[in-house]
């Protein structure tokens, strides 16, 4: 019997690497006939991942034959792979007979609000079987809001001063950077803190 590999992704096992921690929202995709003429396509959806975080998911290589099956993983020829955000961490190996091997794929987005798609090809020895892995992920950034958009100081005597406070809210898993700007240096309104950082999910 010829060596034969099948690729699957259940979305059940997920792991993140590097710090801070990010959680990839993988979902199961059904296998369909690949438009490029190869045998099958398996989808891996990383969901939303914060910029500069690295999410890692695993696909499974099933060896359905009675012999060990060497394989290699590469990118689809002829496609633009400049500045790719997806990487396959194991590009070759051997799957023992009638067993399953997990292969990690990472996603590290660089630009906010960009959905990236890339493809990997899994080929068994002798080009007997081919499978396509389609990777999809969306990059997210800070989500900053203010507790109020209007501050009323009411009346004050000349020479006196008043203080009011408000919150800057970061409702995302990414650290936010903020800076306030005034219309002119002669303004009667001043900020005690003009710039800084806001930790994820804090104010």
Automatic annotation (TrEMBL):
InterPro entries, A to Z: CFAP65, Ig-like_fold
Record-annotated membrane-spanning stretches: none
Organism: Arion vulgaris
Gene3D superfamilies hit by this protein: Immunoglobulins
Protein name: Uncharacterized protein
Region (Disordered): 16-35
